[in-house]
């Protein structure tokens, strides 16, 4: 009796899935061209991040300007509180003008803050996705969770900086094949730690800027000072974030150019194509 045909792609010819043109293997290293599996370069899905980085850096810069404006408004309020404490009572018109200035500058700062946050996360999503496209292996954070962790309470105090740190290490142009071990050996700059330290300090300090229900000249003075300190800390963090956006984008692009030039990301054509299904037991 004739022997049955051997398993094909982990099953039998009758049950094996038929790959469709353009289908990727599980590891993403192979692609079905309609007739056979062909090696797929690690940079096939790489998309330049320059435009997103420019938009993100510009939006962050705009937030810095809005924060400086809010800082000036806080200075006017502090001056008003000092006048009251010294016995020089301001007119009602002066008090109303100060309140209006603070409120309008605050609303503008919040609006720009939301805008800059959105474009920054869009940039970060692309950066993390590109590291995978450039062949980085054993990455902990996916592009989706690179964004999602920012919205998880308590975890968002730690995870976002870990996402950026991993992205920085994975984009090292001196390392063609980024793995967990190579990233552990590749140090990240103090720039990232400094950015996150100032950011967290700014957020924690802002809690003390909340005015009590019964506002007194003294409490107004103290809360305004704390709010100004918080703003300064967050402005520094934002300036460092701009440097990170520009530097990390350039770093990743250098790696992409290096891989393209050297062909270090090419798969060996002699390697066997991967199965679509695990081998039958």
TrEMBL record:
<feature type="compositionally biased region" description="Pro residues">
    <location>
        <begin position="271"/>
        <end position="281"/>
    </location>
</feature>
<keyword id="KW-0472">Membrane</keyword>
<keyword id="KW-1133">Transmembrane helix</keyword>
<feature type="transmembrane region" description="Helical">
    <location>
        <begin position="106"/>
        <end position="124"/>
    </location>
</feature>
<dbReference type="Pfam" id="PF14219">
    <property type="entry name" value="DUF4328"/>
</dbReference>
<feature type="transmembrane region" description="Helical">
    <location>
        <begin position="190"/>
        <end position="211"/>
    </location>
</feature>
<keyword id="KW-0812">Transmembrane</keyword>
<feature type="transmembrane region" description="Helical">
    <location>
        <begin position="231"/>
        <end position="250"/>
    </location>
</feature>
<feature type="region of interest" description="Disordered">
    <location>
        <begin position="259"/>
        <end position="281"/>
    </location>
</feature>
<feature type="compositionally biased region" description="Low complexity">
    <location>
        <begin position="259"/>
        <end position="270"/>
    </location>
</feature>
<feature type="transmembrane region" description="Helical">
    <location>
        <begin position="54"/>
        <end position="73"/>
    </location>
</feature>
<protein>
    <submittedName>
        <fullName>DUF4328 domain-containing protein</fullName>
    </submittedName>
</protein>
<feature type="domain" description="DUF4328">
    <location>
        <begin position="91"/>
        <end position="249"/>
    </location>
</feature>
<dbReference type="InterPro" id="IPR025565">
    <property type="entry name" value="DUF4328"/>
</dbReference>
């Amino acid at each position: 009796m004739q022997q049955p045909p051997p398993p094909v792609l982990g099953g039998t010819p009758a049950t094996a899935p038929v790959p469709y043109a353009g289908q990727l293997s599980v590891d993403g290293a192979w692609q079905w061209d309609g007739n056979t599996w062909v090696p797929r370069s690690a940079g096939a899905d790489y998309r330049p991040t320059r435009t997103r980085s420019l938009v993100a850096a510009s939006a962050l810069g705009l937030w810095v300007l809005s924060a400086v404006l809010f800082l000036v408004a806080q200075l006017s309020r502090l001056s008003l509180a000092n006048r009251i404490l010294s016995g020089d009572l301001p007119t009602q018109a002066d008090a109303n003008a100060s309140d209006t200035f603070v409120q309008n500058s605050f609303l503008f700062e919040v609006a720009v803050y939301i805008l800059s946050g959105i474009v920054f996360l869009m940039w970060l999503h692309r950066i993390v996705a590109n590291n995978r496209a450039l062949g980085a292996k054993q990455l902990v954070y996916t592009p989706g969770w690179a964004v999602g962790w920012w919205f998880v309470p308590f975890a968002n105090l730690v995870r976002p900086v870990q996402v950026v740190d991993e992205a920085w290490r994975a984009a090292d142009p001196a390392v063609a094949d980024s793995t967990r071990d190579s990233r552990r050996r590749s140090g990240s700059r103090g720039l990232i730690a400094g950015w996150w330290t100032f950011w967290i300090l700014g957020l924690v300090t802002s809690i003390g800027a909340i005015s009590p229900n019964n506002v007194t000249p003294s409490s107004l003075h103290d809360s305004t000072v704390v709010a100004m300190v918080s703003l300064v800390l967050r402005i520094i963090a934002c300036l460092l974030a701009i440097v990170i956006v520009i530097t990390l984008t350039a770093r990743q692009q250098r790696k992409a150019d290096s891989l393209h030039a050297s062909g270090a990301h090419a798969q060996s054509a002699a390697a066997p194509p991967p199965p679509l299904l695990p081998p039958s037991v």
